[in-house]
Amino acid sequence: MAGITMHTLPRNEPEWWIAARKYKSANPLETSIHDAEYVKASGSKLINPECVDIHVLWPHEKRPKFGTDRHVDKIVPQNCFSQSRTHLEGDERFAAYIECIRNFPKSVSSSDSKKLGIFAHVLESQIYTRGLQGEDENDKLDLSPIANRTRARLAQASQLRPQTPSTPTPLRRQQELVQPLHHMDIDVEMNDDILSSPMSITYGGSPVTGEEAKQASVIKNEQEVVICLSILIRALRLVTDSVQTARYAAEQAIFTVVDKENEKVYSAKVDGVVRIYPRGKIWVISETKKGPRYRGNLSGAEIKAQESSEMAAWIAEVPPSNLEEMREKNLLDRRLMINQNKDEVYIIVGTYSAHYVDYICHRETDRLDFLVMQEIGPFRCEEWRAMKLLAEIILAILIWACECEAGVREV
Asked: Partners of 274 in the beta sheet?
């Protein structure tokens, strides 16, 4: 996401219009994310015009504060949350886990592990993530060949014109500009035969040095956050038999936005998904970063832009099954993300209408509409109240998804 230079993403429609006029040369109502030729910047990452064209709003500009359970009804039905709280209150292992967090442990002892059970691994992993250092590699957007060719062509052409900066960006080698798209990974550019999944790395016979070693370190560091979130969700699944059809998989699921000719516009990967079986339908996606979501006074715009592209691509590839009912009754649908940035967890709720589905699926629509993203958090791993509420919310999400998939409740 290095191409994103906006300090904040639009909070409302007037701010979106300001951003649209600033970063787009064409009429915003006459172009869309599906139009590749208007792209004006070089590189292979999401840039300002494309971020605007996802049609996304983030209503809260400042860093959100840790909330109470008054936020729960924005995520799941209250009765699912009540069931979750009851299950966790009756689990001695979870109670021991919360008590350990209150004591700010630096490690997990063998005596602790006997009391914590499955939550010993959760606590140990969370302690480890606090020490992760470094910046994130946010390259998780795979643009269409047309967009990449357009960007490369314009990048080369721009080098022929006089440059205002005293140190202009040098021309990249041709093989760098036109490298195959399948070499683009979400967090780091590596070949598929090197990185087959976020949970498995195959090393060659010769040692890696220089840039390759740095990239391998990035992958291993972020893997720790993927593992941390995976262990938490899987441990909560084992608290009650009512969510045994739920599975959290640390898989890099790929979602793709296509145009009306079914040509790829862009694809986005996520770091994990919650599937409900036997169908294996995805109900929740997740994203992880080894660095903090907010640094100093920054707004987290790069990470939010990436999450927006992932949520939009998920909606485009898997539209809601009750789309016509949404259209007729003017209903809103919601999608959920559970994201971990270093040792903080955020729950992202994306809300949208049938008009937005029409837009992102490149269908005719008579109304400008938006995907509205609301972030709830941070839930810090060292704060026991935050982790208690987070666990209750995640288990409630699993209960809700399992009941919806089983037909016990309406989506």
From this structure: 248, 284
CA angle 194, 249, 74 (to 5 degrees): 130
Rg (CA), the chain: 22
Would you say residue 168 lies in a domain? no
Q: How far apart are CA 246 and CA 338, in angstroms?
A: 15
Distance CA 348, CA 74 (A): 10
**Contact yes or no for 345/322 (Cβ under 8 A):** no
**Count of the separate structural domains present in the chain:** 1
Backbone angles phi, psi at 371, to 5 degrees: -90, 120
- Is residue 165 one of the residues assigned to a domain? no
Name the amino acid, one letter, at 145.
P
Q: Which of 150, 220, 138, 205 is nearest to 178 (CA)?
A: 150
1 inside domain? no
Count CA within 13 A, CB hemisphere, residue 39: 29
Range of the domain at 229: 13-158+176-406
Closest CA to 284 of 359, 229, 224: 229
Report yes or no: 71 and 28 within 8 Å, Cβ to Cβ: no
Ranges of the chain with pLDDT below 70 = 1-6, 24-28, 36-47, 61-70, 132-220, 296-298, 411
378 preceded by a cis bond (ω within 30 of 0): yes
- Each as own residue / partner, the long-range contacts of residues 312-315 (CB below 8 Å, 24 or more positions apart, any chain) are 312/33, 312/54, 312/55, 312/56, 312/257, 312/360, 312/371, 313/255, 313/256, 313/257, 313/266, 313/267, 313/268, 314/255, 314/270, 314/282, 314/285, 315/350, 315/352, 315/356, 315/357, 315/360, 315/371
Label residue 334 exposed, middle or buried (CB < 10 Å: 0-12, 13-18, 19+): middle
Residues in CB range of 43: below 8 A, 6 or more apart: 2, 3, 151, 155
Per-residue pLDDT reduced to its tens digit, 112-141: 788 999 999 999 999 888 876 655 555 555
* DSSP state letter for 350: E
Instruction: Kindly state whether residue 41 falls inside one of the protein's structural domains.
Output: yes
Quick one: tokens of 332? 């809103």
What is the Cα–Cα distance from 288 to 274, expressed in whole angstroms? 14
